[in-house]
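Quick start: what a row looks like.
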Amino acid sequence: MSGNTPAEIAQNKRKRKREKEKTNKRTAENPKVPKLETDHGRISNSSSKPWEPKKPAKPETINESIANMDPNLIADYISRQLRRFEKEISAVELEDRSVSTGSFLDTTSYGKERTLENLPEFLETFSNGKQLNTTSQTPGAPHTIIVTAAALRATDLARSVKKFQTKDSMVAKLFAKHIKLSESIDLCRSTRIGLGVGTPARLLALILEGSLKLDYVDTVVLDMSGVNEKQQGIFDIRETHKDVLDLLNTPLVKSRLDGKMKLLAY
């Protein structure tokens, strides 16, 4: 460029400018379909397939060895775990704290895996003809309660039975993580609930407070197949084992387990 005169330099600039304008004009007349970034980080355009959610990074982990047992074996397993965690417990206390065989409904006839996907069918199988998408007129009086060890698992379980929720019958999440007790109380007092899904300590607190009513509960599902990273289920962890037994042995629950209310191991 050092040999070019000022006039030649100016002419070259004008030439490059005209070429750029022509290129821009052609682009405007023949635009390409833009690629758009979606909320999920997937690239799509008008010809792309609809976005489908990715499968969970970690597949659901289950252990059905306890849930597939008959009522006698399940009751014995819970008692053995009680002796394991409370080594000084007396024979009288053990009998008082244990869950009787008669409290369980035998679900060994259910042949499918006890996964999140199959939970709705499981509930329908043992509903005795009950319509699971309906509930009583009384707020906070579900027909089914599902008890699980942790809030994250409760969220997954609630999502799996969402098909039973209607505008008049809610699937309620009743656990402590990120939900204040006062909020759960307000929900139960103001909302008709068909299925309540929660952790044992929060469920017990709501029952004792009176906002979660047991008048119409005939099914209590114990989530015994779901396990954590250490392969521990709801009765394998000292704290949750105690919380579940506290829930089942509170007089309001225990008196009903001798009647129409039944425990289902899932």
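That is the whole record. The beta strands are 36-37, 43-44, 144-147, 170-174, 193-198, 219-222, 262-265. The chain has nine helices and seven strands.
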